[in-house]
Amino acid sequence: MNRIGLVGLLFLSLAACGDTSYEDWNPPDTVGQGGSSSETPPLTVGGQIVVAAKETIPTMLDLHTTVFQRTCSPDGGVCHNSKEYPDLHTAGNLLDSIWKPCNLAESKSQGVVDMCEPPGEWLEILTGTQKGFKTRIAWTAPEDSRWVITLEAPIPGECWPHVAGFRIVAGDGSNEVLLELFQEILEVKCGQTKVYLNYFNTFGPELQDALQWRVQGGDPNRNGVFGYDFGGALIVPGELERSYLLLRMLGVVPGTPMPLANQPLDDKEWLALMCWIETLSDTPSVMDVIDYDGCEAAKTVIKTGELPEISPVEVWP
Predict the structure, then answer these.
(1) Per residue in 231-278, pLDDT tens?
(2) Domain residue limits, the chain
(3) Which DSSP string do the residues of 4-38 spell out, in sequence order?
């Protein structure tokens, strides 16, 4: 056969087969053959954690029963109860811990976490050239026979040491006057952040009690940070990094990680706690359904297969 004949046969063969372009090609129907495209893909590791949390810990009450109540038994002494702070032995008490102050049980002021520091009272000078000057108290402490008050800001001006009258006002926004002495007994040094009440041990019990027990500084751990501005509390709705209870349980703030007894939390339990805090409503109740679908922590778990890393807040936004 000559060359032209071969080309003709090839053309006829292609025409008989029809158009075989990629665009018109369809994969064979695999329905019923174990390859259906409608099959649900298997859950990822993260997806399994979220589904397990939804199924076993759907509500806040379930969260308390699963995570907190088991730590309270069989030995009630290992659980925070009416003798300790915070009291977590009931679901209602856990609910009451929302926005409550944290670190109140810390016996050493240097052990207080910044985000748990109190607001700090205000000291105002009432007499002398610094009359009207007002600043927050950082901390107070006895020193020999006098009481030392360390301030956030230094006394302004240039002057020799002198004495002045003063008042201390509550820092919680109530503007309650905790102590007011117009007689000039406060030793002031301009440019310094410390003022002194000399002969403190000669004061009456009312004045001594007020200074020792009622007046709180805003920087009790003495690191130069007024941590109240960070907005921390035991539980802060929507703010994992400001929720001290979660951070303490995670072991990312100073102190022994909680819970101390029984088995540690598993991933679904951690996720339930995070999502409960993250999606708390304005009017929470023990029967609230935990919103896993609207929880960023759950989305992170689905995407990465791991719980998000939570660190304590360091700045106020």
Answers:
(1) 999 999 999 999 999 998 898 888 776 655 557 899 999 999 999 999
(2) 48-103+228-304, 122-214
(3) HHHHHHHHHHHHHH----GGG--PPP-TTTT--TT
Q: Is the pLDDT of residue 51 over 80?
A: yes
Separation CA 278–CA 303 (nearest Å): 18
Q: Provide CB contacts within 8 A for 298, sequence distance 6+.
A: 50, 53, 271, 275, 292
Under 8 Å CB-to-CB from 59, ≥6 apart: which residues? 286, 287, 288, 289, 290
Q: pTM for the full model?
A: 0.76
| Alpha carbon distance 156, 159 (integer Å) | 9
Q: How far are the Cα atoms of 83, 203, 206, 237, 285 from residue 61, in angstroms, in the given order?
A: 23, 52, 46, 17, 9
